[in-house]
DNA sequence: GGGTCAGTACTCGGATATTGCATGTCCGAGTGTCCTCGG
DNA sequence: CCGAGGACACTCGGACATGCAATATCCGAGTACTGACCC
């Protein structure tokens, strides 16, 4: 179980778009060049972020991508959820009810989720809570050097 | 990103083996029948748990599987780690260093992990901590009805 | 000068490989238990 | 009655097939800006 690589890409794009806010929108070609990523696939991932209301895209020759909201209003959790289809880490298949082990049980016994499922859900909530407690703005602030370098390099790139 | 189904199987097997402690070892055939799972693949997953020192297997006609340790000494985290190859949820590929965006940076800038990686790691730690705080014994205690039904059904199965 | 029109550089969404991992199956070899049979 | 040996029911580990989701690429259509051209 590993997270999709697109999550890392998406988060870096969000942070970079935040840093380049005054220069937005940024075209997909430049973003792909920026991180040395496959352009078409990156575009697909960013489209997912647009569907989630995190990014917006502008068509046309001066078009490109920019944050749909101020970065302090975008949590890391939102980005992860948008890029992972909001799926749960753990998916209980109610194994306990199947086969010989589940025979002869009172129906009420399965009304509540099983202990395993509960523990998993608690752990997942802790994970989500942590992710939700950080925003793109937090990430931007964590690396002032990165912000500066980004602006400098982007200036050089666009001439 | 979804957890392998084998994790659910493994945990249910551990709990069931805990409940049936006095009747262990339990053969893979019975376990597979018990949960209506593919026998060969289940075996593979249990072998992984054996490698991690969580289960032991006994060969021979009265052989089968049993817990390698008392259930209060087996955390849910251990089972998950054993079945997921201990891989991290998030794997930083250092995208920030690649492409045009990373050019002209001081080497010292990349000495520390990037903010994204840090946030992910914190979240993952919260998840792990939660999983490590529960043991198989906890899970066993959560469902006294399940314990009783298991013993009853197993008795019927083995005659 | 201002309106029209084509060109350009982007976007989108859908369709289609390719890849890798989770899932699932099969087989040969090894080992402990039980049963049988001969002494 | 007891010990040797074979049958059996399990185990292990590796090899192989399948399915699906992540990754990657391509294409046709739409849209906004730019510049040229014409009235």
Please tell me about this protein's structure.
- Two copies of one chain form a homodimer.
- The longest helix of chain A is centred in the C-terminal third of the chain and has 18 residues, at 115-132.
- The mean pLDDT of chain A is 94.
- Chain A is mainly alpha-helical.
- Helix content of chain A is 53%, strand content 5%.
- The first copy, chain A, has helices at 5-19, 28-35, 39-51, 76-83, 115-132, 136-142, 144-158, and strands at 55-58, 64-67.
- In chain A, strands 1-2 form a two-stranded antiparallel ribbon.
- Chain A is elongated.
- Chain A starts with a helix and ends with a helix.
- Chain A has one domain: Winged helix-like DNA-binding domain superfamily/Winged helix DNA-binding domain (Arc Repressor Mutant, subunit A).
- Chains A and B meet through α1, α2, α5, α6 and α7 of A and α1, α2, α5, α6 and α7 of B.
- The structure holds a DNA duplex (39 and 39 nucleotides).
- Chains A, B: It comes from Actinomadura gamaensis.
- Chains A, B: This is RrF2 family transcriptional regulator.
Low-confidence stretches of chain A at least 5 residues in length (pLDDT < 50)?
Answer: none
Oligomer: homodimer
Taking the alpha carbons of the first and last residues of chain A, their distance comes to 43 Å
Which of globular, elongated, flat, extended, rod-shaped describes the shape of chain A? elongated
Structural class of chain A: mainly alpha
User: How do the strands of the widest beta sheet of chain A line up side by side?
Assistant: 1-2
Summarize the amount of helix of chain A as a percent range: 40-55%
InterPro entries (chains A, B): Tscrpt_reg_Rrf2, WH-like_DNA-bd_sf, WH_DNA-bd_sf
Protein name (chains A, B): RrF2 family transcriptional regulator
Pfam families (chains A, B): Rrf2
């Amino acid at each position: 179980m590993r997270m999709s690589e697109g999550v890392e890409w998406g988060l870096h794009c969000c942070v970079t778009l935040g840093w380049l806010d005054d220069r937005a929108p940024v075209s997909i070609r430049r973003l792909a060049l920026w991180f040395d990523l496959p352009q078409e696939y990156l575009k697909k991932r960013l489209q997912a972020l647009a569907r989630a209301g995190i990014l917006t895209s502008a068509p046309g020759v001066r078009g490109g991508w920019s944050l749909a909201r101020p970065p302090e209003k975008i949590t890391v959790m939102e980005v992860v959820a948008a890029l992972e289809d909001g799926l749960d880490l753990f998916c209980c298949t109610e194994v306990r009810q199947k086969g010989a082990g589940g025979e002869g049980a009172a129906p009420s016994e399965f009304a509540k989720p099983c202990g395993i499922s509960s523990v998993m859900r608690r752990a997942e909530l802790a994970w989500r809570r942590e992710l939700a407690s950080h925003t793109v703005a937090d990430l931007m602030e964590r690396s002032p050097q990165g912000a500066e370098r980004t602006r400098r390099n982007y200036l050089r790139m666009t001439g």
